[in-house]
Structure formats: C-alpha cells, structure tokens
Amino acid sequence: MKSSSYYFASLCCLLLAAVAFIFMSNQDSSVASGIPKNYERAAGDTFYCQGTPEEVADEIEQKIKPAQSRATDQSTGSVYLRYEHNLVEISGQGEECRINLEDLNRVNGGSFIYLGPGFRPASPSSSSGGSSGSGSGAGSVK
Description:
Layout: H1 3-25, H2 29-38, E1 41-43, E2 46-48, H3 53-63, E3 69-72, E4 79-82, E5 86-91, E6 98-103, H4 104-111
Antiparallel strand pairs: 1-2, 2-6, 3-4, 4-5, 5-6
C-alpha cells in the first residue's frame, strides 16, 4: 500500500471517530429536547402530562429514550428516570400529572435532597444534599 493510501485511510478513521464522538455526546440531549417537543410546558422545566406516572414514564422511554435507571417512590407514586445528564420526575395523575426535567449538574451540586429510591449514593443525613466529602457513599474507598 502506498503512503497516500495510509494517509487517506487514517483521515477516514479520524473523521469517523469524530462523528461517532459527536453523536454519542449528544445522545442525552434527546431527553432535554424531546420532552419539550412532546409535552406542553407548564413553567420553567415542568411540563403537563396525562395518565399515571408509570404510563407517562413508559411513554417517555418509548418515544424519546430509554432511561439508564428507573425507580418508583412507593409512598407518592412518583417515577424517576435517570439519564446521563438529566433526571426526569413524573408525579401526580390525570390533570395533575407533571413532568419535571432536571439537569444532573443541579442535582449533583446539592440542589436536591431526595432523588427517590434506588439512586445512590444518597445524601449524607447531616447535610442539606449533595456531597459532604465524607466518602460514605457507594463506591467510596475506606
């Protein structure tokens, strides 16, 4: 093979890698853009929905994108869908059904205390949310 062929093949591989990187980095944005496209905005990052939280969560996962993890708060019936960059909370039923779309940077920064069951590490009991730096969460080194 001539050196020009290697150069061309290398250039093609580099271009393909760049396109794949861009595609993968924009995957989670489908949730942040898909919810406003499919649901009417109530205010800010809150949207109206119809049905039970379970039905709406199923609809979001089918129409927009499957979640990385899903949990239901048995006491309230709220459903939480976790994505790489977003947390989606579906609460209420029928006319009271609401979807809250949160950026995980806000969630991880301590803006929220409770994310629902199944999301670890939980907030330290002595803090107002976020990381206290104690290392007591899942995956910490002791």
